[in-house]
């Protein structure tokens, strides 16, 4: 027993040896406290913070938060033990205090950042992806937390008040504004985009300036990620969505109607007044398909004759437009509660444009294109029954076919 006392007295009198043993003891105590905390804190984190269980899909997130919490405990343990052990040099105590202060701030900062990350998945799980993305706000929070932590670390290392550190930053404010100008611009743009809800996860956006057309998969502070329809990924700076023109097609899907606005050209030389011969031909060629046309003529004509048709200004093009209008209204995939218009546009050198303006209930691309193709194929096929010609520019074949006739007429 006396030998142990003598050894202890020798160790206590030897300041370097005593300090090394004290440091070793504090490290061992910190390690033990960390292991114990990791074992007990895992259940606490799962139950009270993440509200998950051990069989959930968030085990990696559980372990990260538990590890951050467990890293704080040994720092606190070492700090208090350094205050309780007598005989340590003041310089060593001050060094341990400073080091523990820095580690405590760093670990708390990383813990807060981990908790901020969990809010993204929790918000999406509760409100759904269509409610908007809060990733930009989370990144802003991380920047604020990291900035505060940096100031506190500098204050701890310099042993000065954080107020003094913050006041001294006014001298370098201009430099900081220059360095973080893109971050500040992105911050303002992200707030505008997120608060106005003009872009949300899953939206189909099109930005011709950047050649982008696809689905929004991520909204961050600096960039918005878009998966294009060719399965490529594009990252667009957030500020571009307040400075560059773009189109968000998502409201079209939500409205349940996708617009068809397309025209074809009628040969103007084929436009003429309607005749009884044309009406008889239409009735024979498309029986049961011109009921609305017959009703229209009965309202305006007292008798069917060529003079009456000319007197009332009834043309083959007018009959055709009414026929197409009736055809569109009878289709089940055309929204009759929205605009349905068949109109003329200004004449051009290529002919008289006839525009179809309507909305189809098939908002998805494949079904929409099928509906649009069926409509125009029907019009191309039926225009001939009204003695109307579809205009197209002459080709080499047209010239070759007309040349023998021209030569024969000149001989």
TrEMBL record:
InterPro entries: LSM_dom_sf, MscS_beta-dom_sf, MscS_channel_2nd, YbdG. Its main location: membrane. Residues 186-250 form the Mechanosensitive ion channel MscS domain. Gene3D superfamilies: 2.30.30.60. It is found in: Membrane. The chain crosses the membrane at residues 20-49, 69-89, 95-116, 137-157, 163-180. This is Mechanosensitive ion channel. It comes from Rouxiella silvae.
């Amino acid at each position: 027993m006396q030998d142990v006392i003598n050894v202890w007295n020798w160790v206590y009198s030897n300041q370097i040896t005593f300090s090394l043993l004290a440091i070793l003891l504090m490290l061992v105590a910190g390690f033990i406290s960390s292991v114990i905390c990791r074992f007990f804190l895992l259940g606490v984190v799962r139950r009270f913070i993440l509200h998950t269980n051990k069989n959930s899909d968030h085990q990696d997130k559980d372990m990260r938060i538990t590890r951050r919490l467990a890293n704080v405990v040994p720092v606190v343990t070492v700090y208090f033990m350094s205050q309780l052990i007598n005989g340590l040099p003041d310089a060593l105590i001050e060094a341990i205090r400073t080091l523990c202060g820095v580690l405590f701030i760093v670990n708390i900062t990383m813990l807060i950042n981990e908790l901020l990350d969990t809010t993204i998945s929790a918000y999406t799980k509760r409100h759904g992806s269509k409610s908007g993305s809060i990733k930009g706000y989370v990144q802003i929070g991380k920047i604020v937390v990291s900035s505060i932590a940096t100031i506190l670390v500098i204050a701890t290392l310099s042993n000065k008040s954080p107020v003094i550190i913050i006041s001294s930053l006014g001298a370098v404010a201009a430099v900081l504004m220059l360095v973080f100008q893109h971050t500040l611009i992105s911050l303002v743009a992200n707030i505008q985009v997120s608060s106005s809800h003009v872009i949300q996860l899953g939206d189909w956006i099109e930005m011709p300036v950047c050649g982008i057309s696809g689905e929004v998969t991520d909204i961050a502070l600096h960039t918005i990620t878009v998966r294009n329809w060719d399965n490529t990924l594009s990252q667009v700076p957030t500020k571009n969505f307040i400075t560059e023109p773009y189109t968000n097609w998502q409201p079209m899907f939500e409205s349940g109607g996708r617009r068809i606005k397309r025209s074809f050209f009628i040969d103007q030389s084929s436009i003429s007044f309607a005749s009884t011969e044309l009406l008889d031909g239409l009735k024979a060629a498309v029986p049961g398909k011109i009921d609305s046309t017959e009703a229209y003529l009965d309202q305006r004509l007292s008798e069917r004759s060529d003079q009456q048709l000319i007197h009332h200004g009834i043309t083959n093009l007018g009959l055709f437009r009414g026929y197409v209008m009736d055809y569109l209204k009878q289709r089940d995939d055309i929204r009759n509660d929205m605009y349905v218009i068949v109109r003329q546009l200004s004449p051009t050198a290529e002919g008289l444009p006839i525009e179809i303006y309507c909305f189809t209930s098939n908002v998805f691309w494949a079904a929409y294109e099928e509906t649009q193709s069926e409509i125009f194929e029907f019009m191309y096929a039926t225009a001939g029954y009204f003695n109307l010609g579809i205009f197209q520019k002459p080709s080499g074949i047209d010239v070759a076919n007309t040349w023998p006739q021209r030569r024969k007429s000149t001989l």
